[in-house]
TrEMBL record:
It comes from Nocardia globerula. GO terms for molecular function: catalytic activity. SUPFAM superfamilies: alpha/beta-Hydrolases (SSF53474). Coiled coil: none annotated. Pfam families: Abhydrolase_6. This is Pimeloyl-ACP methyl ester carboxylesterase. InterPro entries: AB_hydrolase_1, AB_hydrolase_fold, Carboxylesterase_BioH, Epox_hydrolase-like.
Length: 266
């Protein structure tokens, strides 16, 4: 069990209903890029809580940024905003936070993992070196995220990624604080999420992009094998941001899963 989180958390609430979907964003960007997905879920009768992780948006930075600390913050948010049924949807870094939170908080009934990995330790040494070099070396050399990220972001998306939702992701990433991103990458690099996946005991949906270079589909298949009650859907030709690159397909799988596994009360 992680220590209790006592800081304030910046979040928005959309829609109403007895099932709440808590949306946990990745290291790049913040909760603002989930606006379309929050609307889709709210229109379908779900209540949606979109957070900004410590250091993002108006949420103050954590004194000791780590996946464990971020999970404690997510647990605090679930406890304060829970309804009868509660779901965690974690993207990228949020997909590391979600399983750990679900294991520590019995109010969580299901998990959705988008653009996910099992943690830094599950990557090959070569991939670890590449991952850190692409993300931290420019910052250590004095660049901001906005100054260096565009080519990397292009490589993380599928070849046909375009449109206003993709633009929204880019805008959120270009506007973020560089020090927040660096803290998050170091938190990711120090965390091994495999034990949390092995212990995950609630229905879990994995949504993987087949051309995601940040969290490759092969790694998400391996994650699905570790989770006792899981299903995985692969979005063909999609990169790291399925909810923006192929929103209709992404939302179709999400709503189908929620409807089958967690039917709403009348």
């Amino acid at each position: 069990m992680t220590a209790a989180y006592t800081g304030t958390i910046d979040y928005t609430v959309h829609g109403s209903g007895t099932t709440t979907v808590f949306m946990l964003h990745g290291a790049y960007g913040d909760g603002s890029y989930f606006a379309d997905t929050a609307t889709v879920l709210a229109d379908a009768g779900y209540r949606v809580v979109v957070w900004n992780c410590p250091g993002y948006g108006m949420t103050p930075p954590a004194q000791t940024p780590s996946i464990t600390t971020f999970s404690a913050a997510a647990t605090s948010l679930v406890q304060s905003e829970a309804t009868a049924v509660n779901v965690l949807l974690g993207h990228s870094m949020g997909a590391l936070i979600a399983p750990l939170t679900a294991n520590n908080e019995p109010l969580v009934a299901a998990v959705v993992l988008s653009g996910a990995s099992a943690g830094f330790a599950s990557r090959t040494p070569e991939d670890q070196k590449r991952y850190l070099a692409e993300r931290l070396e420019p910052i250590e050399n004095g660049q901001t995220v906005a100054e260096y990220v565009r080519p990397l972001l292009d490589s993380m998306m599928g070849p046909s990624a375009s449109g206003p939702l993709v633009d929204k992701v880019r805008e959120a990433i270009l506007a973020m604080r560089t020090e927040t991103f660096a803290d998050s990458i170091r938190a990711i690099a120090s965390y091994d999420g495999r034990e949390a996946l092995d212990n995950l005991a609630v229905p879990t949906l994995l949504l993987a992009g087949t051309v995601d270079t940040a969290c490759p589909v092969a790694g998400m298949r391996a994650m699905a094998e570790r989770i006792e009650d899981s299903e995985i859907h692969e979005l063909e030709g999609v990169g790291h941001y399925g909810f923006a690159e192929r929103p209709d397909e992404f939302h179709g799988h999400l709503l189908d899963f929620l409807g089958r596994r967690l039917p709403k009360e009348n």
